[in-house]
Every structure is written in structure tokens, then in C-alpha cells.
Design a protein that fits this description.
- The chain is mainly alpha-helical and 259 residues long.
- The protein has helices spanning 4-24, 31-52, 57-84, 87-93, 96-112, 125-139, 152-159, 161-168, 175-180, 183-195, 217-233, 237-258; strands spanning 146-148, 202-204.
- The chain has a two-stranded antiparallel ribbon.
- The longest helix has 28 residues, at 57-84.
- The chain is globular.
Length: 259
């Protein structure tokens, strides 16, 4: 039960819990990094399980439970906090106390009935669709060398672009930023990306069974271009990397159909 692969899976879950706590404290600058750490643990737990020949049913169930926290609940909570934040107020002094205050003030208003603006709760579409995505993955025998639907980590990393851009880009409040972080737009983007998790779009798997070039060409190309994006676009690169993933998957599937 407590083998190395399962311990990595547990570390993935703990990372997700940390991200949720960071979000509730208003530290949406730190929450994405906790999620990224969880993604790293998630990447290696399967690889270690295969190498140790410990990839049994228990590990699969633990992996889905951990992913539900890190790539379902955690990003949903981060987006919920972000949608309740006064972006203009935050950018004036970049103090995270503003984000925490806005979040708890919003929740208090909901409880007391003085707040009726329910758009931020569309952030719950992330854990909602992640639940079905992960359950389907466990029973879908086709998803061994490829995915059908956007993987939960990819959806999560895309959504984390917004808090990272807000916290680490040298932006000032203007009409563009007001539109980009408008709760209605954020809720639409969140819903649209979350829906991709349950739509049967064929996507290549990012997990390496070996590190040889053969059979991993598209993965190495993806990692190379992604590295370039990170160097050039910084925080914006995350969303671009997810879009790149979708585009490369379409190219790979188109070639397979031609063959």
C-alpha cells in the first residue's frame, strides 16, 4: 500500500490541499505553484509505478482521488476566489489582504442574503466536470496511449494562467485588464475549458513509458516548444502551452487518419 508510487500520489493530494488553503488566504500567487508541484508528483507517480511494477488497481484509485483534489477542487477554489476579487483594488497596492477580504466578504454576503451575484460559483464547473472526467478515465480501456477529452491537469494549468498573470506580470488596471478579469468572462472560459474534459476529443498522452525518442517524438517536440514559450511569454505561456497541446493532438490524429 505505502510504496513509493503511492507516496508520490499522496504528495500530489497534499499539494492540492495546500493550493486550496493558499487560495482561501488570498494568496492566489502561491496556489498555482502548489498545483504545479502536484502535477510534478502526478507525472512521476505513474512512471515510478510502471518501473516498480506496482501499477495496480489501488494505485489507479488513489491517483484519481488525488487528482480530484489537485486538478478539480483546487483550481475551482482558486477561480472562485479570483472571480470575487476587486482587481482594480488589488492592482493599486498589490496586497493579498484585499483578495482575502473580498472573498470572505462575498461569502458572508451570500450567507446573509445581501449578495445575489452568483457568477463566481460557475468556478465549481471545474470540480463538477473533473469528477466525471476522472471516473470515466478509470473505466475507459482506450485511454492508455492517448486521452479522450482534455486531461484535468491541462485544464487546471490553463486556468492558472489568470492568477499568475495578475500576480506576476507588470500590468496596470485598464479596459483590457478589466475585460480579461471580468467575472462573467472568467466564468465562461472556465466553463468552456471544463467542458473539454468530457468531450471526446482525442489527445496524445503526456506520460512517458520510456525516455527514448522512438514513440515519444510528439512529446519531445511539445516539451521543446513549451520551453521556448516559457522563456518568451512568461506567465502567458501556460495558456499557450495548453493550446499547443490541443493543436499538436489534432495534427497527430489527422496524420493517423490519413494513414
Amino acid at each position: 500500500m505505502f510504496n513509493l508510487a503511492n507516496l508520490f500520489t499522496a504528495a500530489n493530494m497534499i499539494s492540492g490541499i495546500a493550493a486550496i488553503l493558499f487560495a482561501f488566504m488570498g494568496r492566489i500567487d502561491l496556489a498555482p505553484f502548489a498545483i504545479v508541484l502536484g502535477a510534478i508528483f502526478d507525472f512521476f507517480d505513474g512512471f515510478i509505478a510502471r518501473k516498480l511494477k506496482k501499477d495496480g488497481d489501488l494505485g489507479k484509485q488513489l491517483d484519481s482521488l488525488a487528482d480530484m483534489i489537485t486538478f478539480g477542487l483546487a483550481p475551482g477554489m482558486v477561480m472562485l476566489v479570483l472571480m470575487t476579487a476587486d482587481i482594480e483594488g488589488y492592482l493599486l497596492d498589490r496586497h493579498y489582504e484585499v483578495i482575502r477580504y473580498d472573498f470572505f466578504a462575498y461569502l458572508e454576503g451570500i450567507v446573509q442574503g445581501t449578495e445575489t451575484y452568483a457568477v463566481p460559483f460557475f468556478a465549481l464547473s471545474v470540480p463538477f466536470f473533473a469528477l466525471f472526467r476522472l471516473a470515466k478515465f478509470n473505466i475507459d480501456a482506450r485511454q492508455t496511449t492517448q486521452f479522450f477529452g482534455l486531461p484535468t491537469p491541462a485544464n487546471t494549468l490553463f486556468l492558472m494562467t489568470f492568477p499568475l498573470v495578475l500576480c506576476y506580470s507588470e500590468i496596470e488596471y485598464n479596459e483590457t485588464i478589466e475585460l480579461l478579469f471580468n467575472p462573467a468572462l472568467l466564468s465562461f472560459v472556465t466553463m468552456a475549458m471544463s467542458l473539454l474534459m468530457v468531450i471526446e476529443v482525442p489527445l496524445f498522452s503526456l506520460k512517458f513509458k520510456s525516455f527514448g525518442w522512438k514513440s515519444n517524438e510528439v512529446r519531445f517536440v511539445f516539451l521543446l516548444i513549451s520551453s521556448v514559450f516559457i522563456l518568451i511569454f512568461k506567465a502567458w505561456s501556460i495558456a499557450l502551452i495548453v493550446i499547443l497541446y490541443l493543436i499538436l493532438s489534432l495534427i497527430v490524429n489527422n496524420r493517423k487518419n490519413e494513414i
